Structure formats: structure tokens, C-alpha cells
Amino acid sequence: MRAIVTLHSVDETGSVLSIRPSELESLLDAIEKARHEVVSLGELLTQPGRPDRIAVTFDDALASVAEEGLPILARRGYPASVFVVTDRVGRDNAWPGQPAGIPDMPSMGWGELQALAEAGWEIGSHTHTHAKLTRLSEAAVRAEIAQAHAVVERELGLSPTFFAYPYGAVNDTVRRVAGEFHRFAVAGRLSALDSALDHPLELPRLDGFYLRSARVHRWFGSALFDGWVGLRRRAREARNGRLTP
Predict the structure, then answer these.
(1) Is residue 14 part of a domain?
(2) Are 108 and 89 in contact (CB under 8 A)?
(3) Which residues on adjacent β-strands are paired with residue 83?
(4) pTM
(5) 78, 28 Cβ separation under 8 angstroms
(6) Domain for residue 245, yes or no?
(7) How many domains does the chain fold into?
(8) How far is residue 44's CA from residue 31's CA, in Å, rounded to a whole number?
(9) CATH number for the domain harbouring residue 65
(10) Would 197 be classed as within a structural domain?
(11) Are β-strands 9-10 and 2-7 bridged in parallel, bridged antiparallel, or unpaired?
(12) Phi/psi of residue 153, each to 5°?
């Protein structure tokens, strides 16, 4: 299996955005036990012929990722990627449109992001304000994506190759504009990668919300895990009114 694992915060709150440090350790143990290699997102996506590889990513650039996630991954020698909401760097995740029940969480500052980059992490873009892009005009979509790209370049001296759509929301216009600035973009479909089917600007991911259970960890990489992911995907798509074959 090749897959992008999407996480947000590493903390003890139990929120829908959170994975506990012990759960992250258990997940990484399961990946290793399944004989999968943890690699950078760039390596995963530019070498599609290499099987049994996982990239770990974090949306929103929350401070707990640097405080709790980085040491866990560093002890194992694993890279990761973080997607930055540039208007919220050094602030918090209280952007407009944040769903009810999501706790306020501090974001990393530019110094912490620079330290991650120096530690070998990839820094991607997650728009400027975390707007749901499918609700915006094309001009507003371009402004969100272009400004975030420019701010990362200015603050970190690197051009982000990777993009993550806020809320996983994408349509043809949003995908086209994202492609003007980035080589790869990840969306919200719950699935492992399939190089024969996936669009490089609408890549599926395994949402960390579904990867917190030790029982699921025991299945990782097996046919049972594949079937379970498929069931979760269909249930989520049915709830969202877009059930697919």
C-alpha cells in the first residue's frame, strides 16, 4: 500500500483533530510491523512504482506538531510534511468557518516552521486564511492560493511544491488554480494512493481521525484494513450526499 496519512494536532484533548502521542506511536509501530517505509511526501509521489510506503502529513501547522509530533518522528528518523495557513502563523486555528466543537489551538510561528524545514520536513501551503475554496470566486481562490505561496517563499525562502485543500474541498476551478502554483495537491477522499487513477492535484489521503484505534493499527497494510477503509469512505460519502461506486 502507498498512502498519505493526514493528521492535525498531537495532544491529549481527544478532539476530532487530535491524535494522542501514544496513538501516534502505536500507528507508527503498526506501519513498521506491516513492513511499510515512512518517506517524505515528495519521495512518495515522485516514485509511484515503489510499494509499501507511507507519507505522514499535518494540516494547519499547529504548535503541538512541533512540540509533540516532531520528537516522536525524529526518534525514528522519519520525515513529515506540514501544510501552513499563512495568515494564522504564530496565532491559532480560530479562522472563520471553523466547525463548532473544535478547540482553539495555538499555531506554530515562522521560527518553528523554519526549524522543521531544517530538520528535513517539507513545508506545503494550506491557503492564506483556511477558506473553503469551492465557495469562492475564481479571483478569490487565486488570491488565497497565490498569497499563501508568496508568504511561504518570503518567510522561509522556499517555494512550496505541495498544497492541501481546506476541508478537502475542490472543484475543477480550484484544482486548476492550485496547479498554477503547485505540483501536487491533496484533497479529502479517504483512500490509499493508486497511481493509475489519482490526479496529482486531487490526491486521496487516510484521515487520522480513523487511525487512532489500536484495533485498526493491528490491521494496517492488510486486506482487512483495505476493506475497512472502503467502508468508512462509502459511509462518509453517503453522509455528504456523494456516494460513488
Answers:
(1) yes
(2) yes
(3) 59, 124
(4) 0.95
(5) yes
(6) no
(7) 1
(8) 15
(9) 3.20.20.370
(10) yes
(11) unpaired
(12) -60, -45
